[in-house]
Amino acid sequence: MLYDRTDLENYAEVLTWAMAETREKPFRNMEPVVIRYDIPGLALAEAVYARLMDMHLNPVPMAMPTPYMEVEHHLNSSYGQLLFQPPGLSELYGQAAGIITILAPEELTHLQTVDPRTIAEARRAGDSWRRILERRRQSGALGRTTCVYPTEALARASGMSLTEYAAALKRACWLNMPDPAAEWRRLKREVGEVCDWLDSLQIRRLHVESEDINLKVPVGDNRRFVGISGANIPGYEIYFAPDARGVEGTYYADQPSLRYGHLVAGVSLDFSGGIASRVEAGQGQVFLQGQMYSDAGARRVGEFSLTDKRFSRVDRFMAHTLLDENCGGAHGNCHIALGGSVLESFTGPAEMLTPQLEYELGFNSSDMHWDLVNTQPKRVTAWLADGKPRTIYENGMFRM
């Protein structure tokens, strides 16, 4: 077993803490919580199940499709089968108080022979229950978190043995500490202080500079900086949804990214008027360009993020975006997400954020949300409301 019983119990405690952090309302006895898990993550799913039982909640385990099942679903189905949604799913999600997702991929490239448009069509078929979850999240009735469990596929792609990968992930999630949940509570307070400081500066736009980046990112009105929300474990980044209409300049992702089974590396983007007008990649060029035309918002930026290396315990490439977007390493990291905006950076009540208001404030709308990470040394300059510049990030750290 990769992790002993104590490790699994600690991981389960951290995940239930994170889920509770994303929910405004306290949990009530007997509320249902869905555990979505890949089969290799069963040991952790069982630990989460036991933890939820101790919390007097009702766990609902749901194994996610295996790679073989996913390939069959996308390549050996009629159109009706491709769009099929299990009966009762909307009812379940309409009552769920929480969702914990355990990602433990057995394979990383099994969908590379599937037309990405087919995958996108199948995903859109689940929009009805995703809207239900979003409404419950906005009302404060739903908590959710997502994590990674080590597998041979992830270890192989990152150049580590499975034992090395498991140890790196254990450290990244603070599971090697006596009280991991207490460490996450401490980190939330410390990262929250950085977010409060950034909010107090009244930043109008950011200017990001590295060897291959020269990007201007307008913050936009009614925005706040978000850090350690609990939505992901680990999750060290500090992020916001920019005014997508005003992003200008060049961005480069030096970390590879895997999407729909396709490896894309060396992504370079030129933005003009908020739109990626030039899109290139050292690997995966055709797939990348196809994704840029997947919908009207795919060429715009929905998120900008910075990670402070003093907080992060992810210090190497780990072949999964959830981990790599939180890389600290020698220089910290920044990432942009092409596609849909992260709406939790809106300063007002979530229920106020109608599609019309999203449009007026420059939040981007898209079915895609694709994180692209840069780990180069960089400087980030904030231009404040009074017109003065201030360096807020350098050498992988925020400069409070």
Question: Which features does this protein show?
Answer:
single chain, 400 residues, alpha+beta, Thermophilic metalloprotease-like, 2 domains, 8-stranded antiparallel beta sheet, 5-stranded parallel beta sheet, 13 helices, 20 strands, 32% helix, globular
Care to give the gist of this entry?
The protein is of the alpha+beta class and 400 residues long. The chain has helices at residues 5-21, 42-54, 67-75, 79-83, 89-95, 116-124, 127-138, 152-158, 162-172, 180-200, 285-292, 321-324, 355-361; strands at residues 32-37, 58-63, 98-103, 143-148, 203-210, 214-218, 226-227, 232-233, 238-240, 248-253, 257-259, 262-264, 267-272, 275-280, 301-307, 333-339, 369-374, 378-384, 389-394, 397-398. The relative contact order is 0.13.
What does this structure look like?
The protein is α+β, with helices and mostly antiparallel strands and 400 residues long. It has helices spanning 5-21, 42-54, 67-75, 79-83, 89-95, 116-124, 127-138, 152-158, 162-172, 180-200, 285-292, 321-324, 355-361, and strands at residues 32-37, 58-63, 98-103, 143-148, 203-210, 214-218, 226-227, 232-233, 238-240, 248-253, 257-259, 262-264, 267-272, 275-280, 301-307, 333-339, 369-374, 378-384, 389-394, 397-398. The chain has two domains: 5-149, Thermophilic metalloprotease-like, CATH 3.40.1830; 183-398, no CATH class. It has 13 helices and 20 strands. The strands form four sheets. An eight-stranded antiparallel β-sheet has the order 14-13-10-6-5-18-19-20, with helices on one face. A hairpin with a 2-residue loop joins strand 19 and strand 20. It is globular, with a radius of gyration of 20 Å. It starts with a helix and ends with a strand. The mean pLDDT is 96.
